[in-house]
Design goal:
alpha+beta, four-stranded antiparallel β-sheet, 49% helix, 14% strand, globular
């Protein structure tokens, strides 16, 4: 399999998987609903209006800026991927960059289109392609659902500033696109010498 084919397959599979899971959750879960798979693995439907970990800035203008910034970043990743395909690198590098690209595109799809292809009920599940919606392009929310509260408890008293405080590891809720980006970054870290070659002087 050529590196170009590997990249295309990775991107298609990752984006389709990301969107299938998000659409399923959004059309089958009420916002805030959760299903416990294991004690340490919970499906919890929430929506993120901003960046990672729910960070927001600048209201609607900040939301639009963030979406446009993501689009520009995706363009840069495409350029990086196309250049890397032409070099002699391990397939894991191609997969890593492709996963980062796929994760970015997956969340961009939410941000651009989810505001208009879904309705936005409060106490019922969302409907895909409703007859009417009050949403707008570029103002959709990113769907998150994976929650891994692996450990819950109070931190040791001897820790400065946070000793004795309740703590959950891992407390953040994320989606497949976020996971793809994380796996891609890990792969590039492992194969960093090939992913980021030093120029010969």
């Amino acid at each position: 399999m050529s590196k170009k084919t590997l990249a295309i397959l990775t991107i298609l599979i990752a984006i389709i998987l990301d969107q299938v899971i998000k659409i399923y959750v959004k059309t089958n879960f009420v916002l805030g609903e959760e299903v416990k798979v294991f004690d340490w693995f919970i499906l919890h439907f929430t929506e993120n209006n901003g960046m990672a970990m729910g960070i927001e800035f600048g209201g609607k203008a900040g939301k639009l800026f963030l979406t446009l910034f993501r689009i520009v970043a995706v363009g840069a990743i495409i350029y990086w991927l196309s250049g890397t395909i032409k070099r002699k690198v391990h397939n894991a590098v191609i997969v890593g960059i492709s996963l980062i690209f796929s994760g970015a595109v997956g969340n961009i799809i939410d941000s651009i289109f989810y505001g208009v292809i879904f309705d936005h009920p409060t106490h019922t599940v969302a409907q895909l392609f409703p007859e009417t919606t009050d949403g707008k392009l570029f103002y959709g929310k990113v769907v998150d659902m994976f929650y891994f509260p692996i450990w819950k408890g109070d931190l040791p008293e001897w820790l400065p500033f946070v000793g004795g405080e309740p703590f959950t590891f891992f407390q953040y809720i994320f989606n497949p696109a976020d996971a793809f980006i994380t796996v891609g970054v890990v792969l590039l870290f492992i194969y960093s010498k090939q992913a980021f070659p030093k120029e010969e002087t």
